[in-house]
Structure formats: structure tokens, C-alpha cells
Amino acid sequence: MQLIESLDLFNKIKDMLASAERVVTVMTKELSDEIAEILLLKASKGIRVNVITRDTNWADWLESKKSSYGMDEIQHYQKEMNYNLKKERELKILQTILPVTIIGVSVITGLLLFFKLFWIPILPGVIISGILIYYFNRLVHKFDNQIAVLKTMISQRETEIEGIRQEILKNLVVKVNKKVGFTVVIVDGKGIVTPLRLCSKENLQELTFFEELNEEKIKEIFKKLDNSSQ
After folding, report:
1. Has domain 2-54+177-229 been given CATH number 3.30.870.10?
2. How many CA atoms lie within 13 A of 51 on its CB side?
3. pLDDT digits (tens, 9 = 90+) for 99-120
4. Residue 175 phi, psi (nearest 5)
């Protein structure tokens, strides 16, 4: 048994999980966002992740990621694309309305004020309209490019995310067990047991302890857990 500061042990466990290459098993009463994110990342990388906890909130969150991983990211890109589409539509409307309005005002002004020389105010109206059309064309072209890039990005990212979801679905196993009252972390066959709860750092100000586990101890713990859940 080794005495250790709770925060130091929490960080040690995070490092253990981050170093996993094959299999991770975490049995704990509570989870934190940091630990849950690491476990999710490992599952997405093709590493087998087993989670046993009585923390139903984080258990549900992990389970939901099998179908919803990356959804927020895609929605963000989609929102940005919709914004660009809206701006492009507004520019195309202005590109039509403003030149027509300017030329119309020029013609009316010429007819009312200059009569036979009505073309005098029309000329600057045509010039201004041409400048506006050119300016709006450039802006529309800019938004067209941004929209095309976003469409490609969304398509590629959707494909990548679907692959990640499949990895999470295949590698992540989450079980809720109300009998869990301590923490066991096993990474690639090496494990520790501790009373430490893997929750938020605000609760990690105490002195705690951990004990390293050999293969026999690991089997014994899980055998007892299985028996108690029956």
C-alpha cells in the first residue's frame, strides 16, 4: 500500500490511461469529464475500454457517444454554412435591386429636370450601377468559395466521424453496477486499486492510498463483483 496525495494519484491514473495501447478497464464509483473524455478517446483509437460504474450520468453520456460523437462539430460547421448561404442570398438580392433602383432614379430625374438631355444623369447612374455589380460579384464569389470549402469539410468530417463512431461502438463497453464503492484501474494488464473517486479535482484535496494489483488480485476483484451483482 502506498500513501499519496489524491490529486497526484488522479494525475497518475490519467497518465496510465493515456499510455494504454491494448485494453483499459476502469471500475469506479464516480467519473469526471477528464476521465470520461480520455476513455472515449481511447475507444475511438481502437483500444478496448471497459467501464464499470455506479455513475449513471457519465455511463449514459459514454453510451450516447456511440451514436452522437461529433454531432456538435458537424452542427457548428452546418450553422456556419447556413450563415454563408443566407449572406450570399442577401447579396444577390442587393446586386439586382440597387443597380435597377439607381438607374430608375437616374431616368426619372433626367426626364423631370433635363427633359431632352435626360441622358445626362443616366450616365453616372450606369457607371455607379456597374461598380456595384462588380463589387457584389466579388462578394458573392467569396461566399461561393467559403460555402464550397465548408461543404467539402462537412462531407469529409462526416465520413471520419462515422468511422470513429464505429470504433467507439466496437470498443467501448459500459456497465452500471450499484455495488461499486472503490476504484480499480487496469491498463494493458497492470492495475491499481484505491478508494479514490475519479470525479472533479475539487474533491481531490485529501491524502489517499493505492495498491498495485497482480493478475490474481484482478481476477479476484472481478469475481467478487460479478457474484455481488447476481
Report:
1. yes
2. 33
3. 888 877 777 776 666 555 555 6
4. -130, 140
Question: Are the C-beta atoms of 28 and 184 separated by less than 8 Å?
Answer: yes
Q: What is the DSSP letter of 192?
A: E
Beta bridge partners of 185: 26, 192
Q: pLDDT tens, 46-85?
A: 999 999 999 999 999 999 999 999 999 999 999 999 999 9
**132-146 residues labelled b (16+ CB within 10 A) or e (exposed):** eeeebeebbeebeeb
What residue ranges do the domains of the chain occupy? 2-54+177-229, 71-168
- 69 and 164 in contact (C-beta within 8 Å)? yes
Closest alpha carbon to 50 in 25, 22, 32: 25
Beta strands (DSSP E) in the chain are 2-5, 23-28, 48-53, 172-176, 183-187, 190-194, 207-213
23-28 vs 48-53, strand pairing mode: parallel
Q: What is the largest CA-CA distance in the chain?
A: 106
